[in-house]
Amino acid sequence: MSYPAVSGDIEVDREAGKGGPAFAAYIRGLGPANIIMGVITAVILFVFVAPFLLVIVVSFGEKIEGASWVWGFDFSNYIRVFVGVDWPNSVTLLYALKLYYTLAYAVLGSLIAVGFAFPFTYFMTQGSRRSQAMWLVFVLASLSMSEVFVVMGWDILLSNRSGLPALLKAVGITSWLKDTGWLAVLRDWDLASPRNVKFKTSQLATVLTMAYLVWPYAVILLFAPLSRIDRSMIEAARTMGAGSLTVLRTIVLPAVRLPVLGSLLLLFVYLLGTYVSVTYFAAPAHQTLPVSIYESIRGATLNAPFGAAQAVILLITAGIFIGFSLMLARLAERKA
Amino acid sequence: MIKAAFKQGFMVLCAIYVALPIMVVCLSALNGGRSMLFPPEDPTLGRFLDFFVNEPVWLNSLENSVIIALSAATLAILITWPIAYDQWKKDTKFSKVLASLAGLPFALPPIVFGVGLSFLWTFIGGLGHMFTGILSHTALLAALPLVTISIGLQSIDRAHLDAAATMGASEGTILRTIILPQTLSYTLSGFFFVVVLSFHEFIVMFFVSASSYATVTLQIFNSLRNGFTPTMAVGAITFLIVSLIVFSLTARFGDLPRLMGADQARKD
Q1: What residues are paired with A70 via a beta bridge?
Q2: Which residues form the domain of A19?
Q3: Which of A160, A240, A271, B28 would give a disulfide with A106, using CB separation of 3.0 to 4.6 Å?
């Protein structure tokens, strides 16, 4: 990659730099534009791409007890993720389970987010340009809210002392739940303590916070395809007597089927890496790979290669689904 | 009639759902005591004083956040402008590959990128230095200005370029007098998107700062062992106001629906 492959004008410049050794002549002959692109290419390779390669390389390394780790090439870290460190003598599914929770939360979170974002965005695109811009400011501002702040908000809303459980108790729903026996059912679902409902810690709170996190992203992703739907088609259908639902079913949904699927995939990939919500709202037994990646690399266990192996598994999962979404985008383009 | 009311109602409900946790955080900042109660007890503005004056740890982290966000945004523009320009002008295979590599960190789970960066900075001995934090955010968020600048370049009227070229303007002159002014608002939007997202970013900074400095989001997470406190909520309010100002300005001076990919033909 040392010779930036930037178009034909290099050939002309090289003529001007005749006389010196080939490489020096090449450098002298480069125009400022080529030098800028060369530097940028180097930066991209070093800061944007190298980290991913490093994660992959380190994941094959080996931890040394009581010390750091050394380079290596074996698959033991991967084996440990899927079937445990003592395989083949015994099988532990501890990390496989974490992978399962990672995928499950991300699937549910992205489905819920798109489910609510789709009607919202559909209604939004029917408004005037001005109202669209105002909604977009609102959505973008909430989109940029840090996960830390979002978790802070839901923590207050769901906390036993001053949140939803306290509200339910105050208006008497809690005692009604107790009388009718629903509280026992909720306890089976891990959503209640003997005295009141509880959401911290629960998988429900985890998934809902994750859905909340990507809801604004879902709106932004769906905004473009929904606002490009041909209005005249809808008008035509209306004049021919089609109701709103018929329009939705026969015109809108077929037109945006692929973008919706694509958005689902992208949100799913985004949610694979959620960290704060899971550490805060999920019980330790229900936590995900990102949490244990952190534990391995910076936290208690300090096993960088093992953390890297888990990160690679996350990376591969993400890569597969991004590949799918790119395929969908290409399909959608061909159809358009 | 009923349908319109249903639409409005649904949108307002969504807005409330989105705004609720944010509003709760903002109101909790008024708490007089050290705990986050809602509704706030013994309301006071003292926590604002704590955040901005009394507790230097917060002002310090705010300063770090600002330095990192502004530097990362500047670097991101400097890196992505030539890439977007090259792709728009030449559209070679090389420029396409470069553009997609530049978008890679934003597309993949940030925690993986954070892990990789922490390895990279460890190897070159820069882990925990501010400049590596800046470079990390530059790389993570460069995809945003890359997209806005590309949209801006595509919106330039080719007729202007042809006219300038026939009148004998050189590439440099065209760049200076037509392309740069016409894409300025898109470049600025990209800049501010990076600033805002860098402010709020958590996980990558969590890995690359290695506890030697803290941004506001990191400081909040680090203080979590003692639970959320109203002073943290002041940080949330500050950031929320910054985002609102930035996006309102983008909407005022740029075409926000178009930036988000709306059909440009509709102007009602």
Answers
A1: A62
A2: 9-58
A3: A271
